[in-house]
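Let us begin with a simple case.
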Amino acid sequence: MPQQFQRNQSQQSDAAQSDEAQDAPMAQQSSKQADQSDALDSILDDIESTLESNAEEYVGSFVQKGGQ
């Protein structure tokens, strides 16, 4: 019986460590997603402010002229 109890404790300990190991990458992934989201929001804010100030010039910079 003591051997069975000891084996169960070992398995529970391994399972807990495995759960912790899986949680760490998820936290890092969430952090990366938040950083990417912030970067995207910043880019979109820049585009929006440019469009508010001079939309015609902004769009014209992407349009080819005279078959170029």
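The second case is a distinct protein. As before, the sequence precedes its structure tokens.
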Amino acid sequence: MEQQMKNNRHRNTAMLLIALGIFLILERWVGIFVVIALLLMFFGFYKVRYENEKKGVAFMGVGAVILLGNNFSLVLAVILISLGIFYIKSKKVQPGDDFIQKQTLIDSIRPGKEPWVLKDSSIWFIIGEAHLDLSYAILEKKETTLVLQGIIGDVRLIVPEEIGVSIEASVTIGQISSPLEKESGVINKLNWISPNYETREHQVKLIVSYIVGDIDVRML
């Protein structure tokens, strides 16, 4: 037992020395903030992938913000690219008189537990959330398209069984959960269609894309 404890101490000391050496090398070449950002992102990835903890997404998000915040030109490039993709995907919505398209820095979409009208919409924000319970939604068309995009987003969607839903979702860092599958970590994509989608009286087509995101879709 004593020998095993001694071996463990030697191993931990060796790992600490190696980690310290790698840290010093990285700090020399890329800077302390980049090193901290990468450590947070890897720690968050480990939490999400192996311990199934949602707070891992927060660690990855903070790491990404630090990484981007230390490089203003990179931040601007990411925002411009995201906006460009937003306008491209917005074309998937057939604009009518009641079509909604908006871009905001920070937004929170929470209609609550009262009846509300869901219209064809295309929404982009740098940081935001959308918590939608479609059991309270009033759908005026057979198929309604909702596009949600941005840099950092938290999406919660509750869908009653009588509504057909089609999901096209992607997050660079984070996780996506649907009734049948879950993707987490880095570069996640999900395409999912609810059973009997084509035969439902009302259908919702959801297109979601974030750099850092947590997307959760549940069926009632």
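The chain is about 40% helix and 40% strand. The two ends are 54 Å apart (CA to CA).
Keep these points in mind for the review questions at the end of the chapter.
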